[in-house]
């Protein structure tokens, strides 16, 4: 174990140890995440005190990092790791991977918080981190979740838990904003050089490495959010302190996967103004890149060069979104159909919106539609209230398929590789959480196994792909989630 972040000057963090929790118990381990860092689930089970932060691994240098950020569009000032502690990084086949406790106790950056995470939110983060990886979306990972019966107060008293999460780095947009708004250009440069040298070394060859850094982060952010939109994922709290400098999905709180399609859906009950609605995510991502660009301006040196880097966002998002939607609809990349395809996509989303069609089921069942006849339409058609409107759109789609002589069997196979059958619906997480609160972790394990293979049919788990029950519509998640 190493800790490269600890090699930065002391102003970037506070060294400290986590606060122990009594009588810990293991909730779940992700075997693929463990394999990535060269461990087995059995080894992790034997290291429970480390997983919950009651002990540190040999050579660990636990620390809490300082950063700042914009929260709901308002400058919030200093924030930092209020309940997270980085304890080191390890070499993997995919490069260095940092390990971090989340929920390990008070830090100097906890503000009015208690430094703890609850079992409910920890299970949600654990499951969604691994579910997003299964979907092929850039994300931090989750190694394990462990619990303790020590109570913490949220809306009610809940029990504590700690997630060990992993990412190449947890540096975020707000890490740069912290130094910019304090007029600390030396520290700003140290951080930028650290990120470039460790994660973007090729950018050193550019005429202006800091402009190139902004352009690359902007491109990655745009592409990540296109992935979110294409799978119906809503982050819920796209503050600049929750935006990864590597373009990873980071900090899972009040997230949600779209069910009955509503482009203006707000998954975070705390977000009364709808700033982070599904429809707003692309433009908020762009806004956040502007905040990062502002922070990097002293290093880039020119407003025009900074703007040029930010101009990468819109074309990168549009190109990735077009690519993903064509794949989801089983269409080839034919330039002569580009404008017609966008019109087809727009009509599709308008139809889904008007009928509040289940997002995941729509795209999964779409693969059963045949190019030359309507014999396979019923499972998909049954999702719509306005079936004549569906029929009209399906006729346009068929005409597009016939224009490229699409083969039904090959297209269905290809579409099912990009349209998941299984996503982490809130009600599925809630069922697993309620069982776990009674010390039954079997549903967490079963759900994790299903979500790690979201594109496979897994007929023995069909119930996880069904329409949500009526009671699920009353579930609410907020920033405390």
From TrEMBL:
<keyword id="KW-0808">Transferase</keyword>
<feature type="binding site">
    <location>
        <position position="251"/>
    </location>
    <ligand>
        <name>ATP</name>
    </ligand>
</feature>
<protein>
    <recommendedName>
        <fullName>Protein nucleotidyltransferase YdiU</fullName>
        <ecNumber>2.7.7.-</ecNumber>
        <ecNumber>2.7.7.108</ecNumber>
    </recommendedName>
</protein>
<dbReference type="GO" id="GO:0005524">
    <property type="term" value="F:ATP binding"/>
</dbReference>
<feature type="binding site">
    <location>
        <position position="102"/>
    </location>
    <ligand>
        <name>ATP</name>
    </ligand>
</feature>
<dbReference type="Pfam" id="PF02696">
    <property type="entry name" value="SelO"/>
</dbReference>
<keyword id="KW-0548">Nucleotidyltransferase</keyword>
<feature type="binding site">
    <location>
        <position position="172"/>
    </location>
    <ligand>
        <name>ATP</name>
    </ligand>
</feature>
<feature type="binding site">
    <location>
        <position position="83"/>
    </location>
    <ligand>
        <name>ATP</name>
    </ligand>
</feature>
<keyword id="KW-0067">ATP-binding</keyword>
<comment type="function">
    <text>Nucleotidyltransferase involved in the post-translational modification of proteins. It can catalyze the addition of adenosine monophosphate (AMP) or uridine monophosphate (UMP) to a protein, resulting in modifications known as AMPylation and UMPylation.</text>
</comment>
<keyword id="KW-0464">Manganese</keyword>
<feature type="binding site">
    <location>
        <position position="114"/>
    </location>
    <ligand>
        <name>ATP</name>
    </ligand>
</feature>
<feature type="binding site">
    <location>
        <position position="82"/>
    </location>
    <ligand>
        <name>ATP</name>
    </ligand>
</feature>
<dbReference type="GO" id="GO:0000287">
    <property type="term" value="F:magnesium ion binding"/>
</dbReference>
<keyword id="KW-0547">Nucleotide-binding</keyword>
<feature type="binding site">
    <location>
        <position position="165"/>
    </location>
    <ligand>
        <name>ATP</name>
    </ligand>
</feature>
<keyword id="KW-0460">Magnesium</keyword>
<dbReference type="GO" id="GO:0070733">
    <property type="term" value="F:AMPylase activity"/>
</dbReference>
<feature type="binding site">
    <location>
        <position position="115"/>
    </location>
    <ligand>
        <name>ATP</name>
    </ligand>
</feature>
<comment type="similarity">
    <text>Belongs to the SELO family.</text>
</comment>
<feature type="binding site">
    <location>
        <position position="251"/>
    </location>
    <ligand>
        <name>Mg(2+)</name>
    </ligand>
</feature>
<feature type="binding site">
    <location>
        <position position="80"/>
    </location>
    <ligand>
        <name>ATP</name>
    </ligand>
</feature>
<dbReference type="GO" id="GO:0030145">
    <property type="term" value="F:manganese ion binding"/>
</dbReference>
<keyword id="KW-0479">Metal-binding</keyword>
<feature type="active site" description="Proton acceptor">
    <location>
        <position position="241"/>
    </location>
</feature>
<dbReference type="InterPro" id="IPR003846">
    <property type="entry name" value="SelO"/>
</dbReference>
<feature type="binding site">
    <location>
        <position position="242"/>
    </location>
    <ligand>
        <name>Mg(2+)</name>
    </ligand>
</feature>
